[in-house]
Structure formats: structure tokens, C-alpha cells
């Protein structure tokens, strides 16, 4: 079950003196966010799969070369010095893409809190998607994602699905 507290804790533990990020803890936070996406329903399977692939790549890079991939700063310095940034196995590019997903999740969740319990969440999701991820996706992916969002439940059902409880009820 998705836990906001687990996400917060993992992101907090990922911070290294406010100027660097521990990649292992960062990946743990995204694993928790992956649970959130998986609880949105089967139509979001492609999102979960994409997140899992990116998280898996980061973990693999850390496992293979912990010295150069333990923090974001060491990873970027290493990838730039070895010209690996555009290699197809770049931790830096993978982090960028994960950040884009996080931007969507944050915007979507911030819009959810303004809804009434029986309000549809699809418009919030579509607005958040159009403001964040849509500009990075092809026409086919954009339309598939927007279509899938039509099947999101109302706010109270979504909260129940992902284990978030509306404090106003």
C-alpha cells in the first residue's frame, strides 16, 4: 500500500547536507511513488512499467559502480567526464525523466485536494499531464495517457484506492 510518509522519509534521507542526493534513497522514494501509480488502475500499467525500468536502471548503476553512482553529484561528474550522458544508460538522463514524472504527481495531487469527494479526478490528471509530461511525449503516448485518465475515479474513491483519506470527511 502506498505511503505518503514513506515517500517523505525516503526523500528526506536522500538529502545529503542540502547540496547532494543519495541515489539509493532517492530510488526508494520512487519505488513508493510507483505504488501510487499502480493503485490508479490497470490502464496505468505503462506508467508503472516505465517507472520500474528507470528505478531499476538507477539501482543497477549504483550496484555496478557505487563509487561513481552513489550520489547525484558523483554520477553527473562521472558521466560528463566519461561522455556517458547520452549513452542510453545514463543515470543523469534517467533522473531527469523521473523528475518529470514527479512534477506530474505533485501537480496532480495538489489539484486533488481542491476537489469535493464526489468530483471526477480526470480533469485534474489531464491538466497536470498537459502542464508537465505531455510536452515530452509523442502524440500516441499523449493521447493514450489522456484516454486512460478518463477512467480515473472520483476523489474519494481514488483516495481510498491509494490509501489516502480525505481529512474533510
Structural write-up:
- By secondary structure, the protein is mainly alpha-helical.
- The protein has nine helices and two strands; from the N terminus they run H-E-E-H-H-H-H-H-H-H-H.
- Strands 1-2 form a two-stranded antiparallel sheet.
- Strand 1 (about 15) and strand 2 (about 20) form a beta hairpin.
- Helix 1 (about 5-15) runs antiparallel to helix 2 (about 25-40), helix 2 runs antiparallel to helix 3 and helix 3 (about 45-65) packs antiparallel against helix 6 (about 90-110).
- The longest helix is centred in the middle third of the chain and has 22 residues, at about 90-110.
- The mean pLDDT is about 90.
Kindly report how far apart the N and C termini lie.
21 Å
Strand content: under 5%
Average pLDDT: 89
Radius of gyration: 17 Å
What is the helical fraction, as a range of percent? 55-70%
Spatial strand sequence of the major β-sheet = 1-2
Number of helices: 9
Order of helices and strands: HEEHHHHHHHH
Spans with pLDDT under 50 lasting ≥5 residues? none
Biggest sheet overview: 2 strands, antiparallel
Structural class: mainly alpha
The overall strand count is 2
* Coarse shape: globular
Features:
single chain; 169 residues; mainly alpha; two-stranded antiparallel sheet; 9 helices; 2 strands; 66% helix; 2% strand; globular
Q: What topology emerges from the helices and strands here?
A:
Blueprint: H1 4-14, E1 15-16, E2 20-21, H2 23-38, H3 45-64, H4 66-69, H5 72-81, H6 91-112, H7 122-131, H8 139-149, H9 155-162
Antiparallel strand pairs: 1-2
Amino acid at each position: 500500500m502506498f505511503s505518503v510518509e514513506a515517500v517523505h522519509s525516503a526523500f528526506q534521507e536522500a538529502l545529503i547536507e542540502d547540496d547532494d542526493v543519495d541515489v539509493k534513497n532517492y530510488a526508494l522514494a520512487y519505488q513508493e511513488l510507483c505504488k501510487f501509480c499502480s493503485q490508479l488502475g490497470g490502464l496505468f500499467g505503462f506508467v508503472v512499467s516505465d517507472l520500474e525500468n528507470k528505478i531499476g536502471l538507477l539501482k543497477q548503476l549504483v550496484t555496478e559502480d557505487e563509487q561513481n553512482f552513489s550520489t547525484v553529484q558523483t554520477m553527473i561528474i562521472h558521466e560528463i567526464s566519461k561522455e556517458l550522458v547520452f549513452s542510453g544508460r545514463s543515470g543523469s538522463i534517467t533522473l531527469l525523466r523521473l523528475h518529470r514524472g514527479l512534477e506530474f504527481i505533485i501537480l496532480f495531487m495538489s489539484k486533488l485536494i481542491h476537489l469535493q469527494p464526489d468530483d471526477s479526478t480526470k480533469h485534474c490528471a489531464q491538466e497536470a499531464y498537459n502542464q508537465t509530461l505531455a510536452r515530452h511525449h509523442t502524440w500516441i503516448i499523449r493521447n493514450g495517457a489522456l484516454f486512460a485518465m478518463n477512467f480515473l475515479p472520483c476523489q474519494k474513491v481514488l483516495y481510498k484506492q491509494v490509501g489516502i483519506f480525505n481529512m474533510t470527511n
